[in-house]
Amino acid sequence: MNYKSYTRHNFTELPQISNLSSEQIEAIRVVGNVLPFKSNNYVVEQLIDWNNIPDDPIFTLTFPRKEMLSKQHYDKVTNLLQSGADPRVVKNEINKIRLKLNPNPAGQESNIPLFEGEKLHGIQHKYRETVLFFPSQGQTCHAYCTFCFRWPQFTGMSELKFAMKEAALLHKYLLKHPKVSDVLFTGGDPLTANARILSAYIEPLLSKEFSHIQNIRVGSKSLAYWPYRFLTDKDADDLLFLFEKVSRAGKHLAFQAHFNHPDELMTDAVRRAIERIRNTGTQIRTQSPLLRNINDNPETWSKMWKEQVRLGLVPYYMFVARDTGSKAFFEV
Q: How confident is the model over 149-169, as a mean pLDDT?
């Protein structure tokens, strides 16, 4: 399967859009101008039940809905788009709305370290033992979650983005901090980067001089939204070989898989991808927030966790939505 993305610019090409009302289509355009919107052919063809719109959980996970913005903000964006105003004016007003959506709810900017007189904007170091790294080549996703806590990464507002591409600077920072035992590659989705780039970041950590780095974690939604990353993408085998190298080097590699609903675990593709990853010696841990309109009932969580355990995954994190973006729609 070849990857094809759908955004607010081309989603009307989908034949399934005929299932939507004109108001729902308008909502995708309006909300998609404020919050990031991207889906793909796997999500659209294999995960969404188009006979259950708008209640299908995967549709709600990936397609914007009117209620994801306040009425005030929704009406303002609608009027801006209909006014024919200068695109620069529209962009400026939309950015003002974004800034009101609490883009950095956990004070992430305060966790950016200062190293040799330079702020490392692709690193967060809040806890002594753990460093978060945002590779600039992985600051997108195969599809965007409508609840995303890190939505500012995808809006083009550079002042709100965490990213860094200097592998050498990451390694230098880690060598100067011997108490760090865990490195988490995050994003966005670091697995949107190719295997060669990921190797440049990860392989040096396997050498003796980084003996203090014991645990390497990769946070990714790719298993749920594009399992072909591990099956048929041109560097799928190279990526899995990199995972195997980490395990052989005696490091613990944890794949932090984002699954929000049991429907994401039911395709043949995701099950084959899980098997391939586990065969490299990688542990797959799962995580999800509790989301109204998606998984806010015990039956859904029970089914999801039982299926994850059956597939050899480790349910690891359950948390609540952060106070940012479309939180009002998803909070319980």
A: 65
What pLDDT, on a 0 to 100 scale, did the predictor assign at position 85? Answer: 83
Which pair of structure tokens corresponds to residue 292? 């109204």
Residue at 312: amino acid letter: G
Rounded-to-integer distance, Cα 305 and Cα 114, Å: 40
- Which sequence spans correspond to the domains of the chain? 5-99, 108-330
Q: Exposed e or buried b for every residue in 145-179, given b needs 16+ CB within 10 A?
A: bbbbbbbbbbbeeeebbbbbbebebbbebbeebee
Residues 192/141, Cβ–Cβ less than 8 Å: yes
Q: Taking residues 83-88, what's their average pLDDT? A: 88
Output DSSP code: residue 147. T
CATH 3.20.20.70, domain 108-330, yes or no: yes
Q: Take residue 16 and report the two structure tokens written for it.
A: 């399934």
Calculate the alpha carbon distances from 321 to 67, 151, 268, 285 in Å. 16, 13, 30, 19
Strand pairing class (283-290; 252-258): parallel
Q: Which of 14, 6, 59, 13 is nearest to 36 (CA)?
A: 6
The C-alpha angle with vertex 224 and arms to 24 and 131, in degrees rounded to 5, equals 110
Quote the pTM value.
0.92
Question: Pick from 155, 207, 298, 257: which is nearest to 306 by CA?
Answer: 298
Helix (H, G, I), strand (E, B) or coil at 162: coil
- Report pLDDT for 117: 84
